[in-house]
Amino acid sequence: MTKRILIAGAAQEVSTFNPVFSTYEDFNISVGDEVIERSAGKNSEVAGMVDVLKTDSDIEVVASYSAGATSAGPLDQTSWERIASEFLEALKPFAGNISGALFAMHGSMSAENELDPEGYLLEESRKILGEEIPIIYTQDIHGVTTAKMLKHADGVAVYHTYPHVDFADTGARAAKQLLRQLNDGAKPVIVRVPIPALVRGEQLVTESGLFGNQVSYLKELHNDPRILNAGFQIGNPFTDVPELCSQVIVVTDNDEELGKEVALKAANEFWDNRLDMHADLVPLGESVAKAAKMKGPVMFTDAADAPSSGASGDSNAIVAEMIRQDYPHTVLVPIVDASAVVRAVEKGIGGRITAKLGGNLDRRFTPIEVKATVISASDGTFPLEKWPSIEHAGPTVVLEAGKITFVVFSRPINLVDRAPFYANGLDPKKFHSIIVKSPFCEPEFFDDWCQINLNVDAPGSTSADLPSLGPTICARPMFPLDEGVEFNPEPQVYSRG
For the residues 462-467, what does the mean pLDDT come to? Predict the structure, then answer.
């Protein structure tokens, strides 16, 4: 008998500390078959789901709705209500005529008056689709799985990589669990162990850092037929919500004790390593002074203004310090400033403008005045190098101000690789210094050919100096926000059987 499997999605990562709300217009919306068609051939969760489901000739794949957006500030209430309404309304035609559902989610959404959007969507989806059908969702390793999510789901598949490259694999793991339930009668039991710790640093890189040990252990568990899914979430420390934490989540086939055993093992090892997983930040002034004396190329990591983590992308903190110190080298700088773009487009290629760059969105930054030549202009649409994403930066210009070259976007985009530079005719290797607004990139993008990567202690809404952000909602005490935090692991068990 043919089984119909429904695919839907809603995903965005936000920084509570970004003062600019995101809106409905920031989202890419897909309806019906578009959800599958737009993911075809991509390294995406939906593509991974579909590839697995297609291996079963008794499965018919259908889709309802998907909404996804670049990381940003919290979603304004009107926009959230519209997305939630569209997501749930699109489910209603499938009520009573599907065998299971797969949801591609993120885990670090947040709206103006809803701190657990994914939990809300799962709860309301249950009311529409019924209590009997299995629902499994995917999440980012930076997601915040909540009790409400787990109460209304049969399982969760979490990314195993950071930087993220296993989007399709994560979707595939979700689909494989679903087939285990439908075809083999698996009875999922979910165990999670919350950990009162938030960490940001190079040791979180799963291929090389300490955190990779826990992820590798959980990943290998998928070879055990008793394990349906296993993953580790380090949360998104910039999404200030009540259940923000790090946590291990293990889904077994009706084996609660096994779930507790492996979850506690991973959680305890992570806690023991927490002191070694902090970011090693270089003071702003020191980083510029040090790089000035180096042959280069030099990479300045400005993770505090990473749009992929939810920042505004309009920090000028590093370049302002370079100007103050009369930095002697060429510099490539990405920045968001829509007003400067408008003025540059009006002047045209070769025109000269005086622009005040930065600090137009996040007012913790003071605009800096530069006299620049307009080198080029584009529509700001381009694919990323490895992520399954087409970026839409809006009108974009390249401005040259002495030794400093600015790539100026109209709106924030993911700056996780070199694509924003290449798309505007610029080769980062031709500059002495490059400001990179991402906490971590694949090594071949910058680290493999740069002399040094300076992880700068700059201000911003996604700063790795977590206490400086001033969270007020997440559970306390929490390492490193508080002193003397203790870890008394208490496994939580969820089962819909």
Answer: 93
